[in-house]
Design a protein that fits this description.
alpha+beta; hydrolase; carbohydrate metabolism; EC 2.4.1.18; transferase
């Protein structure tokens, strides 16, 4: 005799409180024969079908009017492949039963996921279209070890959490289910009854595509094909290469003039990419493009780490954009945010009712500054989720490097906290040892798995060895943003020139620690918001002096050791602060030729000249590549130095940061000969006063500054000039 399930078991299943649906549903051997059980709400009649013949081999009885069916297949002893013919609202549908399929996750994957060493967890977790036993559908899996029940809900099941409860793999805390007929393009979520019995509706942490905000459903779609960095792109990331980065917020670089709506990924490919190439930049850096709920976070509060935001189009549109950048010879860097995530209900917060991805104690798991949550880097599955994500963007989209945001907030437990608001590590210190290990591991894995890709750290403290290997006690990044250089030089430039002589060291101090890291010199988005003013508006004086100061500063920046980064709008001297809700002020370039055009031409020429001469970039991180010629003339606010390549070729850089021209300014040099004025920020071509040296000067055998030969120059007001030695 068949023993039908107890009523309380059926009640628990239908109510969504039965955590082991495979023990009840599907085909089971009983003393009476093979018994098939199915939960099919709203069905009126159910038959078991033999797929080979299409014949009906048994009818299932409705044991509960809410949709529980059960029946014994006569004269059958061995389980077989079957389908269900279901009558819904007068129409018969032939379906495959999700509960006839075996476990999905292989033992090795389960082991690696639990161990936190699965390099590509996204290949197993999430939603993956698949064919099983000849049946097309989608396999779903999600990590929620403390949930009482997890179901897949979506367009394929009327968003009804009763219909597709998942199997729990207790050894890993992962829930899984293959749903026949669920196909790419359909929306889904995970419905959880959490550890406290509360119903939660969550987006897939591993979703490859998501809905446009404010909607939060995930989209079934396949994995992009793997890609590798070409040899040219690998070389372009090298320490000895010219790296000039154009940092962009895709939502506000340019907008449609008629409705202020965003440009799409494809429109950006057609407009932004050629612009960046024409301006001479080598790299394009994107503010975070991961799906995020709040526009005002600029992407820095990501909710869907694996999904490019739908604001600008589909995932394939984003791939089109990346491919267009590569075709134009640009490397693409992605701003990556493993430092925190938002508290929105649809995201990772309290995922299964517990602090699963975040720390439970707000002294460890809550960012007061940003009202966001902090990942628990010490939990293996969490660090695995993040490391895998870094690889995902590089391997699946061809991203050439990751810029990691707010590293200081990750590696210090007392970041922006008062005494008593943070918990020391197990050694009593302030360092977040788990975050440090996570960053080292991420950088090591990226280096091993994706040759040529790089990482850059935005780290605002003096933590030793950010861009040094872990074996030396470092974090293993390739580059570090030099925020100290940025603050010092901007503080100097905002001064009235008459006061600059008293702050001379702000321009020279950077060389005292230049050898400690592989630096990028950033003028980023953070410097043109929140009342800081635009870079142009920080410059002192009248309009002429503001532009002259800015041009001299850019000439200094492009010559100083370190790779370059400029946020959009700075290249044409936007006058107002950046506003993420509107386009850059492109109208400043309309009409006749003006000062903004001059700055734009200068940035283009700086990029091209910087790339042309190895002396300006080859030895950025080698002391042989830099030498002061005049460093102590604070009275005149003059600085002169040499940049040098590995072959000994030199370029002389001279800056005058006062509005007073310096005529017959003599200084000693290493290499006598004729020196050509390669670039002059005071040129009339850039709307300067056009003072200078008539194209070239010849050295004199007159000792100066401890050297046997010297040059006598005219240093234009508020200017930087570059001199190249001509062949004899």
């Amino acid at each position: 005799m068949s023993v039908h399930p107890e009523k309380d078991v059926i009640n628990a299943l239908i109510a969504g409180h039965f955590a082991d649906p495979f023990s009840l549903l599907g085909m089971h051997k009983t003393d009476a024969g093979l018994e098939v059980r199915a939960l099919l709400p709203d069905a009126t009649e159910v038959w078991v079908i033999e797929p080979k013949t299409g014949g009906k081999v048994g009818k299932l009885d409705c044991l509960d009017s809410r949709g529980f069916f059960c029946g014994v297949i006569p004269r059958r002893k061995n389980p077989f492949r079957y389908q269900l013919a279901v009558m819904w609202h007068g129409h018969e549908n032939l379906i495959d039963d999700p509960y006839r399929f075996g476990p999905l996750i292989q033992e090795v994957d389960s082991w690696l996921l639990s161990e936190g060493t699965h390099l590509r967890p996204y290949e197993t977790l999430g939603a993956h279209a698949d064919t099983m036993d000849g049946v097309t559908g989608t396999r779903f899996s999600v990590w929620a070890p403390n949930a009482r029940r997890v179901s897949v809900v979506g367009q394929f099941n009327y968003w009804d959490g009763r219909r597709h409860p998942m199997r729990l793999r207790r050894e890993s805390g992962i829930w899984e289910l293959f749903i026949p007929g669920a196909h790419p393009g359909q929306l889904y979520k995970f419905e959880l009854i959490d550890t406290d019995g509360h119903l939660r509706l969550k987006a897939d942490p591993y979703a490859f595509e998501s809905q446009m905000r404010p909607e939060t459903a995930s989209l079934i779609c396949g994995l992009p094909e793997k890609t590798t960095l070409s040899p040219a792109r690998q070389r372009a990331n090298g320490f000895d290469q010219p790296i000039s980065i154009y940092e962009v917020h895709l939502g506000s670089w340019r907008r449609h003039t008629d409705n202020n709506f965003w440009l799409s990924y494809r429109e950006l490919a057609d407009q932004l990419v050629p612009y960046v190439k024409e301006m001479g930049f080598t790299h394009l850096e994107l503010l975070p493009i991961n799906e995020h709920p709040f526009d005002g976070s600029w992407g820095y509060q990501p909710q869907g780490l694996y999904a490019p935001t739908r604001r600008f189009g589909t995932r394939e549109d984003f791939r089109y954009f990346i491919n267009a950048a590569h075709a134009a010879g640009l490397n693409v860097l992605l701003d990556w945010v493993p430092g925190h995530f938002p508290t929105d209900d649809a995201g990772l917060a309290k995922f299964d009712g517990t602090s699963l991805y975040e720390h439970g104690d707000p002294r460890e798991g809550y960012h007061q500054d940003w009202n966001t949550l902090i990942y628990n880097y010490g939990r293996r599955e969490v660090s695995n989720y993040l490391v895998g994500n870094g690889l995902y963007w590089i391997e699946r989209f061809g991203i050439d490097g990751l810029r990691v945001d707010a590293v200081a907030s990750m590696i210090y437990r007392d970041y922006s906290r008062q005494p008593g608001e943070w918990i020391p590590n197990d050694k009593g210190g302030r360092e977040n040892l788990e975050a440090i290990e996570f960053l080292r591991s991420t950088n090591r894995i990226i280096g091993e798995q994706t040759p040529g890709a790089v990482t850059m750290a935005e780290e605002s403290t003096d933590f030793a060895g950010v861009s040094r290997p872990a074996s030396m006690g470092g974090l293993g990044f390739w580059f570090k943003w030099n925020l100290g250089w940025m603050h010092d030089t901007l503080d100097y430039m905002k001064l009235d020139p008459v006061h600059r002589q008293y702050h001379h060291d702000k321009m020279t101090f950077g060389m005292l620690y230049n050898s400690t890291e592989n630096f990028v010199l950033p003028l980023s988005h953070d410097e043109v918001v929140h009342g800081k003013k635009s870079i142009l508006d920080r410059m002192p004086g009248d309009a002429w002096q503001k532009f002259a100061n800015l041009r001299a500063y850019y000439g200094w920046m492009w010559a100083f050791p370190g790779k370059k980064l400029l946020f959009m709008g700075n290249e044409f001297a936007q006058g107002r602060e950046w506003n993420h809700d509107s386009s850059l002020d492109w109208h400043l370039l309309e009409g006749g030729d003006n000062w903004h055009h001059g700055v734009k031409r200068l940035v283009r020429d700086l990029n091209r000249t910087y790339r042309q001469h190895a002396a300006m970039h080859e030895l950025d991180f080698d002391s042989y590549g830099f030498e002061w010629l005049v460093v102590e003339d604070n009275v005149n606010s003059v600085f002169i130095f040499v940049r040098r390549d590995s072959q000994g070729n030199e370029i002389i850089v001279a800056s005058n940061f006062t509005p007073v021209p310096r005529y017959h300014y003599r200084f000693g040099i290493n290499q006598p000969g004729r020196w050509r004025e390669e670039l002059n920020t005071d040129s009339m071509h850039y709307h300067g006063s056009n003072a200078g040296n008539s194209g070239a000067v010849h050295s004199d055998a007159i000792p100066s500054h401890g050297r046997d030969h010297s040059l006598s120059l005219t240093l234009p007001p508020l200017s930087t000039i570059w001199l190249v030695r001509e062949a004899e």
